[in-house]
Amino acid sequence: MRLALIPALFICSALALSARSPAEKAAAAVLDDWHLAAAQADEGRYFSHLAEGAVFLGTDATERWPKAAFQTWAHPIFLRGKAWSFKATRRALTLSQDGRTAWFDEDLDTPNLGPARGSGVLTREQGRWRIQQYNLSVPIPNALLESVKAQIEALAKNPRTVEITK
User: Fold this and answer.
1) How far apart are CA 38 and CA 165, in angstroms?
2) pTM for this prediction
3) Could you tell me the residue range of the domain that residue 33 belongs to?
4) Rounded CA gap, 94 and 109, in Å?
5) Does residue 15 form part of some domain?
6) Is residue 131 part of a domain?
7) pLDDT at position 157, please?
8) Count of structural domains within the chain
9) Please, which contacts does 152-157 make with residues 24 or more away whose CB atoms are closer than 8 Å?
10) How many helices and strands in the chain, by DSSP H and E?
11) Whether 33 contacts 44, CB under 8 Å
12) In angstroms, how far is the first alpha carbon of the chain from the final one?
């Protein structure tokens, strides 16, 4: 009985993928190439996907990077020949009615962060999709939230004396 469902699942998956509009496919391709450019340490290609006024929000509360500041910070990392490696394992993308704005969220497989999440906004500018904002986060399981919250609060009160548990 279960084996009979497998072809149906593949057909449903194929239909869902083929139902994506060309604009959705193009926006998703930009995100995929952006992640690939980082893994390949292609700094020019990576930052070309960010709009001029783009903002990258990192995992630390202090990390709000306008594009120029983010590029300055990341430049030495790209020079090493490998920046970071994010691979989307799931992505949801929604287009505005006029097709010029896309909102997305994606689950990421990352070697350094472990499971992570990215979300943000792309806009269509001069015929191409550009990332306006990207928010990188590490989802905290609810079962761990109380402990993590206590550590964050302790660090905020006295950043020099808190021992971070690993």
Assistant:
1) 30
2) 0.81
3) 20-139
4) 22
5) no
6) yes
7) 86
8) 1
9) none
10) 5, 6
11) no
12) 45
What does each C-alpha distance from 129 to 48, 50, 152 come to in angstroms? 10, 9, 36
- Tokens standing for 68? 């120029």
Assess if residue 14 is contained within a domain.
no
Contacts of residue 134, Cβ cutoff 8 Å, sequence gap at least 6:
50, 54, 55, 56, 57, 118, 119, 120
Helix locations, the chain, DSSP H: 2-18, 22-39, 43-48, 67-79, 142-157
Residue 7 covered by a domain: no
Tell whether the torsion through CA atoms of 112, 118, 120 and 125 is positive or negative.
positive
CB atoms within 10 A of CB 46: 21
Reading the block at residue 129, the tokens are 């999709």
Distance CA 69, CA 58 (A): 13
CATH number at residue 45: 3.10.450.50
Q: What is the pLDDT of residues 33-91, one digit of tens each?
A: 999 999 999 999 999 999 999 999 999 989 999 999 999 999 999 999 989 999 999 99
